[in-house]
């Protein structure tokens, strides 16, 4: 019997990518074959994003493309919480489910494309089906979020915080490490709140009691002997405890902290957690403990009510904080977000002008900080080998969002290799070097 073929489109953030991997792992274990083209697929699943208007439009366009090319489409993901909106544009979709709805999606696939009678369980590797390259993987430790930031609708789509027990997380992490993964990227909506909903309950792992808590998870992951990178960490006071682990080399000296703004009035309008923290002092303290720490963040400019003075305070913060990696978005209304109703909406041309000034300002800082690393020898992880040489990342670079290290002529290297490189050139975001 020919195995039924499933096409899959995964949109949105790494957390959605993990959902896609789980769905594909389940389907593959039941004997379905994953098809890379619309034409060869018997049915297509589209995992959508609904975070901002541009992402909604991309999701709706992708559903339309799948329908046009294939005709049989099941929709899941964050945008699935707005089924009426999807069906208004695409009434012919077979089924719509919300975010992290593995069983619902699989049931819908069964309904419209029954599984083969004799599934080959051995076709699924122990680490499951991954959509990332073999040498790195995302490790999702929780679902949902307890915060109610006024610009965000994620809790309405994904619900409140639900943490995975720490032993469950560690079993997955160990399977990935045993399968050859060299780097784990820890993701969630709020990584530093991990375990709060479980009251930091302890579980047995390798004969010792480990609490379901941010620090204890980082410590346990550090024992795996691979790179561990922390994403989406809100700057709560207990985050300070993890910095010594970075200094010791247990986990990567890298923190992705979505500050979003620095002005206290704007942060209160945003309803951001930890809005009262003195982040400049925290950053100084972190760098004193771990001088090599890389700090990445994202910010929003043009939030409703933001004045020119408050925006300039953001630029001053960048100058003082000297952050390594920074992303920025002009505020964009999101359907259902509280911030849409705030007074004093900033004109679009002003938002775009502030965005350009922000990015130009940070580009100078980034270029100067990368220049300080020229001449150093650093360990990098090879992501790709091309005609000109190897493309790698340092400890300071997360895949897809940060910079790269280019190694000219190193065509003999393999993806997933760790190599030492002497850095010899830099621009605003990337580095060039040669093998030591």
Automatic annotation (TrEMBL):
Keywords: 4Fe-4S, Cytoplasm, Iron, Iron-sulfur, Metal-binding, Ribonucleoprotein, Ribosomal protein, S-adenosyl-L-methionine, Transferase
Binding, [4Fe-4S] cluster 2: 145, 149, 152
SUPFAM superfamilies in alphabetical order: Radical SAM enzymes (SSF102114)
All copies of domain MTTase N-terminal, residue ranges: 4-114
Subcellular location: Cytoplasm
GO cellular component: cytosol; ribosome
Cofactor note: Binds 2 [4Fe-4S] clusters. One cluster is coordinated with 3 cysteines and an exchangeable S-adenosyl-L-methionine.
UniProt-annotated binding residues for [4Fe-4S] cluster 1: 13, 49, 78
Catalytic activity: L-aspartate(89)-[ribosomal protein uS12]-hydrogen + (sulfur carrier)-SH + AH2 + 2 S-adenosyl-L-methionine = 3-methylsulfanyl-L-aspartate(89)-[ribosomal protein uS12]-hydrogen + (sulfur carrier)-H + 5'-deoxyadenosine + L-methionine + A + S-adenosyl-L-homocysteine + 2 H(+)
Span of domain Radical SAM core: 131-368
SMART domains: Elp3
All residue ranges annotated as the TRAM domain in the record: 371-436
GO terms assigned for molecular function: 4 iron, 4 sulfur cluster binding; aspartic acid methylthiotransferase activity; metal ion binding; protein methylthiotransferase activity
Domain of life: Bacteria
Known cofactor(s): [4Fe-4S] cluster
EC number: 2.8.4.4
Pfam families to which the protein is assigned, alphabetical: Radical_SAM, TRAM_2, UPF0004
Family membership noted in the UniProt record: Belongs to the methylthiotransferase family. RimO subfamily.
Function in brief: Catalyzes the methylthiolation of an aspartic acid residue of ribosomal protein uS12.
Protein name: Ribosomal protein uS12 methylthiotransferase RimO
Species, as recorded: Methylobacter tundripaludum
Record lineage: Bacteria, Pseudomonadati, Pseudomonadota, Gammaproteobacteria, Methylococcales
Gene encoding the protein: rimO
